[in-house]
Each structure stands twice: as C-alpha cells, then as structure tokens.
Design goal:
Blueprint: H1 2-27, H2 32-50, H3 56-72, H4 74-86, H5 90-104, H6 114-161, H7 166-188, E1 212-214, E2 220-222, H8 223-232, E3 250-251, H9 253-265
Antiparallel strand pairs: 1-2, 1-3
GO cellular component, one term: cytoplasm
Enzyme class: transferase
Organism: Glycine soja
Length: about 270
Amino acid sequence: MKAAKKGQNEGAMPNVAIKTAEKGHTEGAKCCMCVFTSLVLGKLLKQFLINFHPGIFTVYWFVVELYRILKTSVLAHYMLGLALLQRQESAKGIKELEKALDLGRGANPKGYMVEEIWQELAKAKYLEWERSSSKRSWELQSLKEACESALKEKHFLDYSQMEGFVDDATTSHSEQLEALERVFNTAAEADIPTEVPDYLCCRITLDIFHDPVITPSGLTYERAVILEHLQKVGKFDPITREPLDPSQLVPNLAIKEAVEAFLDKHGWAYKID
C-alpha cells in the first residue's frame, strides 16, 4: 500500500508543479519582470515537468533548452527590455529591445510583433536623444560664449594696437563672429528636427520604415502594412496593381541600413506622434 501510494504521489508531482507554474504565470503579470519570467519560462517549465525524470542529464537538458529559448526568443528580449527600462537601466533595456526587433523582423504573421517592439524602442531612444541633445546644446552654447568672449578680448587688443585702422579691425571682428556662428550652427544641425527623406518612409503610412520589404515591382513597403493589405484588400501591389503574394516579399536590407544610419545621426526622428 505504501509503495502504491508513493507511486501515486510521484505521478501527481508533475501535475501539482504544473498547476503551481500556471498559477505563477497568472500572478506574474503584475510587473514586467514577472511577466517576462512567466511567459518565457512558464511554457518551458511546464514541458520540463511533464517529462520529469530525476537525473543530472534532465537538469542539463533543461538548462541548455532554457538558454536556447532565451537567446532566440523575441518575447524574452522584449519583456526583459521593458523590465530594464522600468528599472531605469536605459542602455541595457534599449539593447534588449534592439535584439527583439532584429529577431522579430521576418517572423510569421502569428508571432509578428515588430510594431509593439518599435513603439517601446522608439520611446526609449527618443528620451535618450532628448537627454543627450540637451547636454550637447548646453556644451555648444558654453563653448560658443567662451569663443565669443575670447574674440572680444582679441578685438580690444587689436583695436588698441591698430591706430588709424579702426575700420579694418571692426570688419575683421565681425567676420570672425559670423564665421563662429556658422560653425556652431553646423554643429547643431543634427539635433534640429527636419523632414525625414521620402525614400526612408513607407509609401502607405508615410512613416519611417521599421521593417521594410521590397516587392518584385521594386517598390518598398512596411511589412505589417503590406501584409494587412494583402490579407484584407487583395493579393496585389497597392500601387502597381500587379499580383502579389506574401511569399514574394523580401527584406530590403539596403533601406533598413539607411534607416538605422539616419536614426543614429538624427535621434529626433524616433519621436512618435
């Protein structure tokens, strides 16, 4: 009887553990880190417990499988990024969101979450740009004032030594101030919001590309937008009207790299209206 009861308890252990894991999954949604833990680890833990057998090799498999999922899971990097941002660890959070975005591009429609990732990444990157832009602006203004002060002192010194050439000294000083103004205006240009170049924007949304794909006709669209068009409107190119199937969409890596280069230089373009 004791042996039979013991066998029943051993068989029930995985079920109890599974229910506990599922309960933890629900309660874990109260904060980003708990959501990350429950969503990413919950499924793996459940699978592990269903196939539970004592032994070091099972534990080893669990660790290896956990590492594989964490390394390649879009959701894992996304939730970890949100958790790090909430903890004010902006640099690490942005890095995780960027990993999630790279992994998420080209995912199948059911698991596609590039737009959600982009929204969070754009907000974080824009806040980062605002902080660094304010710092750069203050540094440039301080340096400009110091240069203007130095030029003013030089002007008075030259003025006292150039008797009879007052007009020349004044003209030279004005030209130097104008040149200084141009130099600092040029230095500040990258932080002045302008228009995003048309070739970096989707023809349908008019927003900067997040996940650009190119069609056989040579036109580039935002992946989520063109997929929605093909699903809800019809399987044809919205501009050329030529037949188009989702399988014909190819990532436009050249535009993707151009967008990344533009955003690296012009962080203000991350702003979401």
